[in-house]
Amino acid sequence: MNEDSWDRLLKIRTSGRDDTGSDRYKYPYEPTPYSVLERLGNSGEIGKKNTVLDYGCGKGRVDFFLSYQTGCNSIGIEYNERFYQTALRNQKKAVSSGKVCFVQQDAAAYQVPAQVDRCFFFNPFCLEILKQAMARILESWYENQRELRLYFYYPSQEYEVYLNGLDELQYEGAVNCMDLFPGNNMREKILIFSLL
């Protein structure tokens, strides 16, 4: 199915890039392709017992899709007021809306709930904010140790260098997405890290 078909099935509107409110710290809204989400959803990494925290959730695509596809609960965190309001409008009609909630807050300050055991990132912000968000994730993990897995789609080189340098993280592999798009782009993957 293509992007519009998935939006129609899920009864949401999430397509199209939007640069509203973006700057050198917080990047534009660009939805994760459904083909990538299908690959993650079918990987066995996420199930109905999991709670996914989607950083920079935008209009809520990742949250609605994963909740629909895997049965997981999902929390979308979004800084941009306009995207947050669109996510709330989507939630009124979405097929998986009962398993999804949204929070409008800066990721750098967001206190990660104890039930969160999966985190998803699609380059929502600069490395400095990622470091602050990771500090909040680590705080939550130290307070309530559990298996916690982190997914980074289309990671930048600076993200990769930083993540591979964190002692607390264990690299678990990658979900290869290069075959989904033309050009053999090495960034077309989802890196998986865990806190154990």
UniProtKB/TrEMBL annotation:
UniProt-listed Pfam families: Methyltransf_25 (PF13649)
Signal peptide from the UniProt entry: none
A biological-process GO annotation: methylation
Name this polypeptide is given: SAM-dependent methyltransferase
Listed SUPFAM superfamilies: S-adenosyl-L-methionine-dependent methyltransferases (SSF53335)
Keyword Transferase belongs to the record: yes
InterPro entries xref list: Methyltransf_25, SAM-dependent_MTases_sf
UniProt KW keywords: Methyltransferase, Transferase
Originating species: Blautia caecimuris
